[in-house]
Amino acid sequence: MTSKVILIILDGLAYNTAEQCMGFIHALTEQNQSTLYKVQCELPSMSRPLYETILTGVTPAVSGIVHNQVARNSNQQSVFSLARKAGLSTAAAAFHWFSELYNQSPYNAIRDRHTVDIKQLIQYGTFYHDGKYPDSHLYLDAELLRRRYDPDFLLVHPMSIDEAGHHSGLDSSHYRNTTRRSDKELSEFLPSWIEAGYQIIITADHGMNTDKSHGGSLSQERDIPLFVIGDQFTHQANCQPKQLEICGIICELLGVQNHEKAVTENLLLDENQTMAKQNLSMKG
Length: 284
Fold this sequence. Notes:
Layout: E1 5-9, H1 15-21, H2 23-30, E2 34-40, H3 47-56, H4 60-63, H5 79-85, E3 90-95, H6 96-102, H7 109-112, E4 114-116, E5 124-128, H8 135-149, E6 153-156, H9 160-168, H10 173-187, H11 190-195, E7 199-203, H12 219-222, E8 223-229, H13 246-254, H14 271-283
Parallel strand pairs: 1-6, 1-7, 3-5, 3-6
Antiparallel strand pairs: 2-8, 4-5, 7-8
């Protein structure tokens, strides 16, 4: 199995809000193109620790990235490092903490904001350092990277939902409407990504609480969405993915060898299932 992958991390998006407000992505679900799973994030339910968890498959206690102020390079194997070892190309349109984790730390905006460097783990990057950076701009950044560099793995990371949660809290029209707007912005690009054959994972790092924060163990802070789009997923409703397994899932999709497998049973098609599906398609 070898596919190009787009990972979209909608920062701060709680599961119930995703379930209620992501209208376009749910339209894809009704058309049997997308499947939604509920996932519980690791602890602490904070951004930088969970960026590392998603991309390495280890808990914050193991990675040592235990709060947002731990600003250093990752010392773990990540999707980016494994993809680079396999000779694959990587890109990211994301908050600058990803640049600090996987490229150079500390972040230097003049040097790092626009990255084109084949020696880096993230070879092609557009990084922002203001949480109010518009999602509309971020998705345009991602699409430019995709068209210009055709990466095997592309990370897309908008921040506006998290910003709205910190400003107004989980149970607010601001938070819900910001989620709706991000869904609308994403709808401008998802159809062409699907048509191009990408395997797409849409998830969050953590949720949000009514105190306008996160970091603890409340279900609102820990329950997050995982949408999967693409023909390499089984789309079985009874799968129970874990946040720790996202790294392994991406590596399987990319065809990366020698990674620690942590793939939820039946979430991905195996080789036999893929061949059977192709044969059925040919017969049809």
